[in-house]
Design goal:
By secondary structure, the protein is mainly beta. It has a single domain, classed as Oxidoreductase, molybdopterin-binding domain (Sulfite Oxidase, Chain A, domain 2). The chain contains 3 helices and 11 strands; from the N terminus they run αβββαββαββββββ. The strands form 2 sheets. Strands 1, 4, 5, 8, 9 and 10 form a 6-stranded mixed sheet that branches. A 5-stranded mixed sheet has the order 3-2-11-6-7. Strand 4 and strand 5 form a beta hairpin. The radius of gyration is 17 Å and the shape is globular. The model has no long low-confidence stretch (mean pLDDT 94). The protein binds the ligand Nc1nc2c(c(=O)[nH]1)N[C@H]1C(S)=C(S)[C@@H](COP(=O)(O)O)O[C@H]1N2 and molybdenum atom. The site of molybdenum atom has 6 residues, from loops. This is Sulfite oxidase-like oxidoreductase.
C-alpha cells in the first residue's frame, strides 16, 4: 500500500521515541496559568539573580536584549500530559547570565511577576540547559505564554519553566516552589515520569 509513505513512517517512529512515558503529542499550544496574566511594562521590567550571600545581579529589558542570544529548538512536556516537539525560542542562556555571579549554592528558586515560584537544582539551569526567552516561533512571546520573558528549562516538566520570570534566588537549601509544595515532584524529570512527590 502506498498510502503511508516510508518517510511518514520514519517520522512517526522518531516522534514516538521523543515522547516521554504517558505523554501525547499536541500541535496546539495550551495555556496553563495558576493566576491572572500580569502586565509588566518593559520600562519597569527587570531580571535579578540574587546569590545566597545577598548579592544581586540585575538586568533591565534593554540590557537583556543586548546580551548574546540563542535560538534553541526543543521539545516541551507538560505534566498534564501534552508534549510539543521542536518548539523554537529566542533568548539568553542562563550560562551567560550566571557568568559573573559568584556562588556556591546548589539550588535555585525562580520567582515570577505575579508570585509564582518553582525550584530546581542550580546545575539544571547551567551548561546549555536553560534560557530566559522572549520570542517563540519568531514572534515576541505572547503575554499568556509568559511574555515579556519566561524561563525555559525543557528537560524538566514545563511547570519548571516559570512564565513572567523576574528573578532567580540562589540558595544552599532546596525550597519548594508553588506546585512542588502542593504535591508535584521536587525535580520533575519527564523521562522518569516524576509527576508527583514519591514518583
Ligand atoms: N508564572 C507562572 N509560570 C508558569 C505557570 C504559572 O501558572 N505561572 N504554569 C506552569 C505550567 S504548569 C506549565 S505547563 C507552563 C505552561 O506554559 P504555557 O501556558 O505557555 O503553555 O507554564 C508553567 N509556568
Ligand atoms: Mo503544567
Amino acid at each position: 500500500m502506498g498510502i503511508v509513505s516510508p518517510g511518514f513512517r520514519r517520522r512517526r517512529r522518531d516522534e514516538d521515541s521523543r515522547l516521554p512515558p504517558g505523554q501525547y503529542l499536541t500541535e496546539d499550544f495550551p495555556v496553563l496559568s495558576a493566576g491572572p496574566t500580569p502586565n509588566i511594562p518593559l520600562d519597569r521590567w527587570e531580571f535579578v539573580i540574587a546569590s545566597e550571600d545577598g548579592r544581586e545581579y540585575r538586568w533591565t529589558w534593554d540590557e537583556l536584549l543586548e546580551l548574546p542570544a540563542e535560538e534553541p529548538t526543543v521539545d516541551i512536556h507538560c505534566v498534564t500530559k501534552w508534549s510539543k516537539l521542536e518548539t523554537t525560542w529566542r533568548g539568553v542562556s542562563l550560562d551567560v547570565l550566571m557568568e559573573d555571579v559568584e556562588t556556591t549554592a546548589d539550588f535555585a528558586l525562580a520567582h515570577s511577576y505575579g508570585g509564582y515560584t518553582t525550584n530546581l537544582p542550580l546545575e539544571d539551569l547551567l551548561d546549555g540547559k536553560a534560557w530566559i526567552v522572549y520570542e517563540f516561533e519568531g514572534s515576541e512571546l505572547a503575554p499568556q505564554h509568559g511574555g515579556p520573558a519566561r524561563l525555559l528549562v525543557p528537560h524538566l516538566y514545563f511547570w519548571k519553566s516559570a512564565k513572567w520570570v523576574r528573578g532567580i534566588q540562589l540558595q544552599e537549601f532546596d525550597e519548594l516552589g508553588f506546585w512542588e509544595s502542593v504535591g508535584y515532584h521536587d525535580y520533575g524529570d519527564p523521562w522518569r515520569e516524576q509527576r508527583y512527590q514519591g514518583d
